[in-house]
Amino acid sequence: MAYNGSVKRASQTSSIATASPLGILCFSSTTLIFSVVNMFLFGIRHPHIVVGMAIGAGGLVELLAGMWEFARGNAFGGTIVLASYSAFWLSFAAILIPGTGIAAGYEGNMEELFAALGVYLAPWCILTYIFMDISWRRGDKLYAAMFASLLCTYSLATAGKFVEFMTGIMMTAVGGGFGVITSIIGFYIGYKELLAADQVALHPKRD
């Protein structure tokens, strides 16, 4: 998923078109919608609208993009990052879908539900920190910035599940603000990678 010339380098060894821009743009779109909901903007109070995007764009399309990148040899960006966050969106959607019975299992006990959601979100904080650190070490500053912002989103949402209700709501809303920042950076990365991929397609290197 790294932009720093990776699209051009990969194209020299693979005839398969890059799917990284598709994956990151779907990730950014889903994150933006979810963050708007968390911030209670436009009078939206319930996360149900996220389910469709979480299954379709954030889940299925992101997973396909990750597998496509895997075929191109992009293990970190494609297989690990894109596929990992597709797993997050699919599993999160499963929690929100009534038919799964996951949320219903905590009916009548909101305190336990919030604690369970905090436990669910905690590993994603760890995973996002790992991605941020690796991106920084690889010299992918834009990705490192995106993951840093996403880490703030996850961390605030996680912590918000273990504190008093109204305080948790405020922390989640602030985390939503970082989610908006994350999506903006992601849109920019996807735009840059799509431009780079298009240039490679129009002007392929000849031996």
UniProtKB/TrEMBL annotation:
The chain crosses the membrane at residues 21-42, 48-68, 80-101, 113-131, 143-163, 169-189. InterPro entries: AceTr, Gpr1/Fun34/SatP-like. The keyword Protein biosynthesis does not apply. One of its GO terms (molecular function) is acetate transmembrane transporter activity. Keywords: Membrane, Transmembrane, Transmembrane helix. It is a multi-pass membrane protein. GO terms for cellular component: plasma membrane. This is GPR1/FUN34/yaaH family-domain-containing protein. It comes from Favolaschia claudopus.
